[in-house]
Amino acid sequence: MKSLLTFPKGGVHPPESKAQTQGLAIEVMPVPDELELILGQHIGAPCTPTVAKRDVVAEGDVVGEVKKGLGVPLHAPVAGKIKEIATSAHPMRVSAPSITLVVDKEAEPVHYQWMDWHHLSSADLLAKIYDAGIVGIGGAGFPTHVKLNPPANSPIDTLVLNGAECEPYITADHRQMLENPMEIVEGANIILKILGISECHIGIESNKPDAIREMSKAAQDASGADGSIKIQTLQVKYPQGSEKQLIQAITGRKVPAMALPSAVGVVVQNVTTAKAIYNAVVYSKPLCEKVVTIAGKGIARPANLQVKIGTKVADIVDYLGGLRPGLAKIIMGGPMMGFAVSSLDVPVTKTTSAVLFLTEDEIDTKPHSACIRCGWCLEACPMGLEPKEIGIYVEADRAEDTEQFGVFDCFECGSCAYVCPAKRPLVQFVRLAKMKAKRAQ
Ligand code: SF4
Ligand code: SF4
Q1: Looking at the structure, do residues 73 and 103 belong to the same domain, yes or no?
Q2: How far is the CA of 366 from the centre of ligand 1 (A)?
Q3: CA 4 to ligand 1 center in whole angstroms
């Protein structure tokens, strides 16, 4: 039997915990009374509001723009009236500038018109992707029009679509691949045209055989049995879906330390971003909604919910029947890379993939202790870094000296912390080390 593809170094096998939601079809949540649109939804500069208090906006209107530097516009997900431009709770920070939109429940939804995109040039396609405010919605939110326009000295020959969804609990991409395979594949074809290449691999972990089947069918329909879009079955191993690990698993190419995938001729996009690209190009539809997995024993009814960007967690909780006794922690994102939040006022952004409501028995609450130098974190690190040394240096107040252990190559996957028997907060140590080392540069 052919062995499944994976990356060679490190990785862990946390419990998958996907059974709660993997069989649940995507459900559209009714739009709540108010949306909270955070102005900084992507890597780069936050948007500047283009609207003022009391302005009336239509669905799809631009409400924020980046005046200078990296970024994309922000749109009104529905029609309504601007109540306030102030600050809101933020999934990763304490608060952030945002626009509060009071939803006009009487407004007719916009019907976006289909168009044939095949005659459009790369520049036209990139402009449509920018206009729709598309960012990498499976990851950190890098503006997609920039990622699809790599520098001329980094020729690209391969597109990799990430359908691994290796984080425990999250099943939103799985459902997208089952329910919208044609749109994802068409999105891949649009990206191939922009990059002027023909080779595309879609990596999916072997724990999603139904998605592998549906995506294979769609790829075959779109490009023929020997076509340019190939489905690659990946071993179930965390963090299979991180860019560098995915590239190595599928192409065998190793992205050098501190370099981008374009250094080895590859562009990576998430499968859901490919679907957003399809919507942007074929329907001129801005990125205004997101499929989010809502799971954990602390929520009355788990779901894969399609919500408007700006929907508050509190409204999701109400819609799903409330919280259950024993809730101990709320995480935006997965349990490995997500962020604990302390307020239900936090809104969904373009990069929110899940909201987890975890009870005491689903989390580890043991206090951390000193490093026992077991070396397990070194074995688990897919980047070959030395997380134990980073932690020791941070505790010794020498964070600015951690560059020698590769701190800037750490993408905060949490594999080291997961295996650490002393429960050391290694990812928090890394974040602190990066901050201090940057300041010292
Ligand atoms: S969080 Fe960083 S140091 Fe820890 S395993 Fe992941 S890449 Fe390595
Ligand atoms: S796994 Fe934890 S205890 Fe073991 S060496 Fe790494 S930091 Fe130290």
Answers
A1: yes
A2: 21
A3: 23
Same domain, 57 and 106: yes
Residue closest via CA to ligand 2's atom 4 equals: 374
133 and 101 in a common domain: no
Name the closest ligand to CA 380.
1
Residues 6+ apart with CB under 8 A from 377: 387, 388, 415, 416, 417, 419, 420, 426
Ligand 2 atom with minimal separation from the 374 CA = 4
Which residue from 281, 263, 284 is spatially nearest to 193, judged by alpha carbons? 281
pLDDT in tens, 196-219: 999 999 999 999 999 999 999 999
Q: How far, in Å, from the CA of 385 to the mean position of ligand 2?
A: 12
| pTM listed for this prediction | 0.94
Q: CA angle at residue 17 from 243 to 326, to 5 degrees? A: 125
Is residue 130 domain-shared with residue 278, that is, in the same domain?
yes
pLDDT at residue 383 is higher than 90: yes
CA of 418 to the centre of ligand 1 (A): 10
Tell me the two tokens of residue 141: 């939110």
Q: Say if CB 234 and CB 156 are below 8 A apart.
A: no
| Closest listed residue to residue 101, CA positions, set 154, 127, 148, 64 | 64
Q: Are 291 and 183 in contact (CB under 8 A)?
A: no
Ligand 2 neighbours (beta carbon < 6 A) = 371-377, 388, 391, 419-422, 424
Which helix (H) or strand (E) element contains residue 35? Answer: strand 34-38
Query: Whose alpha carbon is nearest atom 1 of ligand 1?
Result: 412
For residue 149, being part of any structural domain is answered with yes
Say whether both 103 and 127 belong to one domain.
Answer: no
